[in-house]
Amino acid sequence: xxxxxxxxxxxxxxxxxxxxxxxxxxxxxxxxxxxxxxxxxxxxxxxxxxxxxxxxxxxxxxxxxxxxxxxxxxxxxxxxxxxxxx
Length: 86
Fold this sequence. Notes:
Low-confidence stretches: none
Distance between the termini: 27 Å
Number of domains: 1
Radius of gyration: 14 Å
Largest sheet: 2 strands, antiparallel
Structural class: alpha+beta
Shape: globular
Order of helices and strands: HHEEHHEE
Mean pLDDT: 86
Helix content: 40-55%
Strand content: 25-35%
């Protein structure tokens, strides 16, 4: 967790100081949900764009992957995971 936090701090500093577009590739949604402005998802050979707000406040993620997800916001952080048994 500390290494992840340090990496995010470096990325945020570089983005702020140079107005860069940064491409982050990950298998988890927690970092993009909380630190990115736009998210591209790969689903069934297609690329689908969404904002973190769309993924946490709508059923868009459920529709993209055909499975229900639970959503939680705590202490200003967004969390999403597939529902158990789905």
